[in-house]
Structure prediction request, 208 residues.
Amino acid sequence: MTDQRSDYTIGVGVLKTLGLAFRHFIQTYLDDFRRWGKRYKTPEGIAYRASKDVKGIFTVQYPEEKIPVPEEFRFIPFLVFEEKDGVKEYRCTSCGICAKVCPPQCIWIVRSTDPNTGRPIPDPAEFYIDTDICMNCGLCAEYCPFDAIKMDHDYELAVYDRKYNVFDKEKLGKPVSYYEAIRPINYQREENARLEAEAQRATRKTHA
Ligand code: SF4
Ligand code: SF4
Prediction:
């Protein structure tokens, strides 16, 4: 009796799944007619297919078409720098936390030292990521205390030679304006937190 009931439940499940697939199949053609000439290869069509309202099944005609990635999409990390009078000022202090937390250990950092005192300077002399090994987990960006390393959206990095996949500091560096453009919500949240912290510091100084 129990076996019969479970067979029945499985049968109903299979039919429901097939029905869903069939509905998507039909919706594809209905949507094609409804949006004739606008569903593919138009900005409107791309925006529609990237939205939650899309109906039916569709193929992205890559590389002619690209569906925009969401803000939290992660590919290879990049190093954020500020531009002051044409000079790149990397936020990275070479603290090494990202290299420590990186699960496949694909980050290498060489610290700078003051040539006179031999003491470390909070600026990496060299910074490498082996992007073939990077598994895009985003832990480096999560743990960086200086918002100096962030996850990029650029996924078109195919090359013929593996030697190009070890990115150095120059190749990893991107301006803060780029970070703001690809991750506006994250950027704004961090800026608000920074401004708030500055205001609190100023208040503490006034009362000291
Ligand atoms: S990117 Fe961040 S965590 Fe990594 S060394 Fe630089 S400051 Fe430290
Ligand atoms: S994204 Fe993950 S694997 Fe890639 S460098 Fe950062 S911590 Fe390492």
User: Anything to note?
Assistant: The CA atoms of residues 180 and 188 lie 8 Å apart. Helices lie at 2-34, 43-50, 97-101, 139-143, 169-172, 176-182, 184-207. The longest strand covers residues 120-130.
